[in-house]
Specification:
The protein is an alpha+beta fold. It has one domain. It is built from 2 helices and 4 strands, in the order E-E-H-E-E-H. Strands 2-1-3-4 form a 4-stranded antiparallel β-sheet.
Length: 123
């Protein structure tokens, strides 16, 4: 982890109604999805903050499934035929083929969170 000071005035836009994407995956321990395919349910969550979304994802995943949370990026309305972008906030898509050490470490952290609450906001 690195922490870098910044000038907060360098942002050009803000989104007060973010859209989050939650991945809930069943499957084994292997970091190579080609060797260990997973069943994944995906949904978008709006009208919530990241702590609420992570808490909800943990509840849905329970003790057996993996979860990941991404911020859905869009600079405006998404025209037909174009796609949104994702910024991973917690974990990663468990069906992605791990490309390097950073992704392998991210996937290992995802596995380590299974069955453990990292956010408890007390519904």
């Amino acid at each position: 982890m690195r922490v870098e000071p910044v000038d907060e005035r360098d942002s050009a836009w803000e989104d007060s109604r973010p859209r989050f994407r939650v991945y809930l995956s069943e499957g084994g321990e292997a970091s190579d999805a080609r060797k260990c395919p997973r069943t994944t349910d995906t949904c978008d969550v709006v009208d919530a903050d990241v702590l609420q979304v992570v808490s909800w994802a943990q509840d849905q995943a329970g003790d057996d499934e993996l979860y990941a949370v991404a911020l859905v990026g869009e600079d405006g309305p998404v025209p037909a035929g174009q796609r949104r972008g994702l910024t991973w906030l917690v974990g990663m898509d468990a069906n992605e083929v791990v490309q390097d050490d950073a992704e392998r470490q991210c996937f290992e952290r995802t596995l380590a969170r299974r069955g453990r609450r990292v956010v408890d906001i007390g519904q």
